[in-house]
Specification:
- The complex is a heterotrimer of chains A (282), B (431) and C (289).
- By secondary structure, chain A is mostly helical.
- Chain A folds into two domains: 33 residues; 216 residues, Orthogonal Bundle (MetI-like fold), CATH 1.10.3720.
- Helices cover 72% and strands 0% of the residues of chain A.
- Chain A contains 14 helices and no strands.
- The longest helix of chain A is centred in the first third of the chain and has 35 residues.
- Chain A starts with 6 loop residues before the first helix and ends with a helix.
- Chain B is of the alpha/beta class.
- Chain B folds into two domains: 175 residues, Periplasmic binding protein-like II (D-Maltodextrin-Binding Protein, domain 2, 3-Layer(aba) Sandwich); 196 residues, D-Maltodextrin-Binding Protein, domain 2, CATH 3.40.190.
- Chain B is 43% helix and 16% strand.
- In chain B, the strands form two sheets. In chain B, strands 1, 2, 3, 6, 7, 8, 9, 10, 11 and 12 form a ten-stranded mixed β-sheet that branches.
- Chain B starts with 9 loop residues before the first helix and ends with a helix.
- Chain C has a single domain, classed as MetI-like (MetI-like fold, Orthogonal Bundle), CATH 1.10.3720.10.
- Chain C contains 13 helices and two strands, in the order H-E-E-H-H-H-H-H-H-H-H-H-H-H-H.
- In chain C, strands 1-2 form a two-stranded antiparallel ribbon.
- The chains are: A mainly alpha (282), B alpha/beta (431), C mainly alpha (289).
- At the A-B interface, helix 3 and helix 9 of A face helix 2, helix 4, helix 10 and helix 11 of B.
Chain lengths: 282, 431, 289
């Protein structure tokens, strides 16, 4: 393509250049705190106290990571987060799609009510339910268990909504043909609908993981020993305390919390953004 | 289509699974989930007596002592759980209300009156006769003449000072301030914010902490919070007013921040003086081995009068009324408060000191003068009044000090208002 | 009808989840707000009808927390929305590395708020980078998080930093939905950059702007994690937000009846705000319908 010449084009190029520079600067300063976190976590000097502010790790080492994982509780926190996130993602993949399918394909009495129910689940803030949920879990003697951390979150309204919208866009003919052939409902669901909904399922899986990994309020109130804490909660409580906290350890733990999420994002950017914008542009 | 599905039998369902194995997947997932959950959450297995012991010390500090106990008492298995100060209280409360409380539990002395008043602690008045004379701080675990726990160790706060900064400011590094005037003088001389150095490390508002930094001055001046029988507030007294005014006068030579920031700043050599706890005796050598520092008792108002008072927070071992193994639990408690075990704990933890009489003469402390200073401080330390509603009183004191520190209220006004609020708390009955 | 039964099977996960973990807690929460309930002493439970609500309305800390929360919302939502909008417009131009910008700016918003709070707690500390920067710019160092005047502002700034990337993506989607012909038409009419912006772009992204403002407001009303990690409501209750206050009452003071009343009051406030916003910004359809 021939490069445009002339005053206007030149102005446009200058504008673009200026804009690019500004954006790059803004991007650098936006990502700087995260860089600082990683840099601090890699500082290997024995006392991170001496010069708290260093832009570059002078003696880089993985010492802090070894510390928090081996002698610290972070290995357990990490494990808990993985277990809980995996369970909630799998649960949602199965259950939210079941419900989404029913809403998309079935007519039944009270369907309107169900939809209103689902929408209201999205609108009401979590804090209203935190106390009764806490009391409920406590009464059921499920406090501080994996059940408490997963059961209430296995069917997320947003995921139901996503799946139902997607299934609605699938051609009904395939399912009807299968039914004529004598396939059972479960068959149709698992063998036809689910495979076809893979894009939506991917979005559900990734978004559920993102939301769940960072989940804080409920894991905070539903756990009370180190053994059962998830990473964000463990990290937050680790950073508190009357006694001094090692910033090398703290940033190492923070990086452990942030890296999986950033990785998932970088790998599945498209899906994530699709999920976000799908909810908005309706 | 004929409606023959209406009577679905198990056989049909099994056939279905056979035909479509993918149906099995969610079922398997559910089962393994349940199984795994049960496994990991733990189902207790009984072998002999299993004592649950909840306490706040890290494993490396407490495990050796527990192991000794288990060796001496075969058949008793101690399941230790470590709590954090951040939410230990909630956890204990939750366990009591759900009936899963431990057999033996470490409580902060400021919590004991409340639990005792709620009637959930085991009454051990008859069991502790032998220990009465050898330990201190029984008032913190008693209510209405009955004893509800055994004092274990206690922590206090002392004055840390940076010897190098003293030298640089022309002060004698071996003679820390002993009176209020000397304290503010030292702070003034060291204070040089242009060079990033502050005279005094003053605590900003932080729950459970601020009153431990202010009250020493009040108590040292003879001030009190409640009267003898805990029925009336004596907070708005002249002594407390002087203490509050003095405390605030330190502000212009201070860095006002939260405890962890102050400790870190002290380790970085940026603060000349701060009132802090024994944990620093562990963390300073680890994080700032080159720091030359000293420990002194909290300064008293004047050379002639007042005391080197400080805050005393004891740890009490309690049992619960609903606990199943009270006898064994008390056995463990008695073992824990034995002299050598207490010293072993204090030696590892460093943030607490023993409270048996004559502790400061123990050979261990002769060899460790900095830690000895804490034991000495403990002998003139004051515990908060053992009122069941202490946490609310504490909050009032803390917000009072905070308001005056930040200048939003005058000291006299603030004290009077606090006085009213405290009175309304101690006079109201019930929850 | 087998169809009904199988429909029921398909719906069952949601029905169970909704009933047990949503409807029940919601109703129970309302019931709790009419009671005096302390889990440590369940025997002292008794009905107090509306006195929890009355107590809330007379509680200076309730009003302080509400004021702080409103300040927080008023301070962050407009700023975040503006930043996100202009950034989206900038990224939407014909410049290289657009995906880099879009993804890069988005990263802070997916990182856990706990992590962000921990990072900024250190950056804001007296010996942290913010003070170093302040010194470079010639002003004196401060205890940012320990001074009543600056603590909430610092948290608000942090919140803007952490969330604008997410809304930028939403704006980008909205911008990209504007058909090119509209821009062409504007260009032919001789409209410059700013003119186009004012008369074409902004009106056309109105729906998405509304969506962003509404969800950002709802989210901002619930600010909690930052307070929990960084300031715990201090100094001098200047960062005491509604949710933190309610958490404090429920889990530190164990006044669960009172806390439930606070939760409901907060919910009513959020609902009113959302309704007003939707009406004012003239949204036709409710979300999700």
């Amino acid at each position: 393509m021939r490069r445009a010449t002339g005053k206007r084009a030149k102005q446009a190029r200058v504008n673009t250049a200026v804009l690019s520079v500004l954006l790059l600067l803004l991007l650098a300063s936006t990502l700087f705190p995260l860089y600082w976190m990683v840099a601090t976590s890699l500082r290997g000097e024995a006392s991170v106290m001496k010069t708290a502010v260093d832009l570059w790790p002078r003696s880089p080492s993985l010492r802090n990571y070894v510390d928090v994982l081996k002698s610290g509780p972070f290995a357990r926190y990490f494990f808990n987060s993985i277990v809980v996130s995996a369970a909630v993602v799998l649960g949602n993949l199965l259950f939210a799609s079941m419900v989404g399918y029913a809403i998309a394909r079935r007519q039944f009495r009270g369907k309107r009510l169900v939809i209103v129910g689902i929408v209201s689940m999205l609108m009401v803030p979590r804090q209203i339910m935190m106390i009764p949920l806490y009391l409920l879990i406590s009464k059921l003697h499920m406090m501080n268990t994996y059940f408490a951390l997963t059961l209430p979150f296995l069917v997320d309204a947003f995921n139901v909504f996503l799946i139902s919208q997607y299934v609605l866009s699938l051609p009904v003919e395939l399912e009807e043909a299968a039914r004529v052939d004598g396939a059972s409902d479960m068959n149709i669901f698992f063998k036809i609908v689910l495979p076809l909904s893979r894009p939506a399922l991917a979005v559900v899986a990734i978004n559920t993981f993102l939301v769940n990994w960072n989940s804080f309020l409920y894991p905070l109130i539903l756990t009370n020993t180190e053994r059962m804490r998830t990473l964000p909660v463990g990290l937050a409580l680790y950073s508190q305390g009357e006694h001094s906290v090692d910033w090398g350890h703290l940033t190492a733990g923070s990086t452990l919390c942030a890296v999986p999420i950033i990785l998932v994002f970088l790998l599945f950017q498209r899906h994530i953004i699709e999920g976000i914008t799908a909810g908005a542009v309706k | 289509m004929p409606d023959d599905r209406a009577g679905e039998t198990t056989e049909c369902a099994v056939n279905r699974v056979r035909r479509n194995p993918i149906f099995l997947l969610p079922v398997c997932a559910a089962f393994s989930f349940v199984f795994f959950g049960l496994l990991v959450s733990g189902c207790g297995r009984e072998k002999g007596v299993r004592l649950t012991f909840w306490q706040f010390w890290p494993s490396e500090v407490i495990e050796p002592i527990i192991e000794e106990f288990e060796k001496a008492n075969p058949g008793v298995d101690v399941e230790m759980q470590q709590l954090t100060w951040q939410n230990g209280f909630e956890k204990i409360v939750a366990s009591v209300s759900s009936g899963t409380q431990p057999d033996l539990c470490e409580l902060g002395s400021t919590w004991v009156p409340r639990f005792a008043a709620d009637g959930v602690l085991g009454d051990v008045t008859g069991e502790v006769g032998a220990l009465k004379d050898s330990l201190l701080f029984w008032e913190s675990c008693s209510l209405n003449g009955r004893v509800y726990g055994i004092p274990w160790v206690a922590g206090t706060r002392a004055l840390f000072y940076n010897k190098e900064l003293f030298e640089k400011a022309g002060l004698n590094p071996d003679s820390p301030p002993e009176t209020w005037e000397e304290l503010i003088e030292c702070a003034r001389k060291i204070h040089s914010p242009g060079n990033g150095v502050y005279g005094f490390g003053m605590n900003a508002g932080e729950r459970y902490i601020l009153f431990k930094k202010f009250m020493p001055f009040a108590w040292g001046n003879g001030g009190k919070i409640l009267n003898q029988d805990l029925s009336r507030s004596e907070f708005a007294s002249g002594e407390n007013l002087e203490a509050l005014v003095f405390y605030c006068s330190l502000k212009k030579y201070s860095l006002v921040e939260k405890q962890d920031v102050l400790d870190m700043a002290f380790k970085q050599g940026k603060i000349g003086l701060e009132i802090s706890g024994g944990w620093n005796l562990k963390t300073i050598p680890a994080d700032a081995p080159d720091l030359k520092f000293g420990v002194a008792v909290v300064p008293k108002p004047k050379a002639c009068c007042g005391t080197h008072a400080s805050f005393a927070g004891s740890e009490i071992l309690v049992t619960f009324v609903k606990s199943g193994h009270q006898k064994e639990a008390l056995k463990l408690a008695r073992f824990l408060v034995e002299k050598q075990n207490v010293i072993s704990l204090c030696r590892s933890a460093k943030s607490v000191q023993p409270i048996f009489r004559g502790a400061q003469n123990d050979p261990y402390y002769d060899a460790n003068p900095l830690e000895k200073m804490f034991v000495v401080q403990l002998s003139t330390a004051v515990a908060p009044p053992p009122h069941p509603k202490w946490p609310e009183i504490e909050e009032i004191i803390e917000s009072t000090v905070e308001e005056v520190t930040y200048g939003t209220r005058k000291p006299e006004e603030a004290l009077l208002e606090a006085d009213n609020k405290i009175n309304s708390i101690v006079s109201s009955t019930g929850d | 009808m087998h169809k009904t039964r199988s429909t029921l099977i398909f719906l069952s996960p949601w029905l169970v989840s909704f009933a047990v973990f949503w409807a029940f807690p919601l109703i129970f929460s309302l019931v709790l707000s009419f009671l005096h309930f302390n889990p440590l002493r369940p025997d002292t439970t008794h009905v107090v009808w509306l006195s929890n609500f009355v107590k809330a309305l007379q509680d200076p800390l309730f009003w302080k927390s509400l004021k702080n929360t409103l300040l927080f919302v008023a301070g962050t939502v407009p700023v975040t929305t503006l930043v996100a909008f202009f950034l989206a417009v900038a990224i939407n131009q014909r410049i290289p590395f657009r995906t880099l910008y879009r993804s890069g700016f988005f990263i802070p918003s997916i990182v856990s708020v706990v992590v962000i709070s921990i990072i900024f707690k250190q950056l804001y500390s007296p010996f942290g980078l913010v003070n170093k920067l302040a010194e470079l710019l010639g002003s004196e160092p401060r205890s940012w998080l320990s001074e009543p005047r600056t603590a909430l502002l610092c948290i608000m700034a942090m919140d803007v930093w952490a969330s604008f990337g997410y809304y930028t993506i939403l704006f980008l989607a909205g911008l990209q939905a504007i058909p090119l012909e509209v821009y062409e038409a504007a260009r032919i009419d001789g409209s410059g950059f700013w003119g186009t912006l004012r008369f074409v772009t902004i009106p056309m992204v109105r729906p998405i702007t509304l969506f962003i403002v509404v969800i950002n407001t709802i989210r901002s009303f619930q600010v909690f994690i930052e307070i929990f990690v960084m300031t715990r409501g201090g100094p001098l209750n200047s960062t005491l937000t509604s949710v933190f206050y309610l958490y404090d009452r429920a889990f530190y003071r164990f006044e669960m009846g009172y806390a439930s009343a606070l939760a409901y009051l907060l919910f009513v406030v959020i609902l009113c705000f959302s309704l007003v916003q939707m009406k004012y910004l003239k949204m036709g359809r409710a979300a999700g319908e």
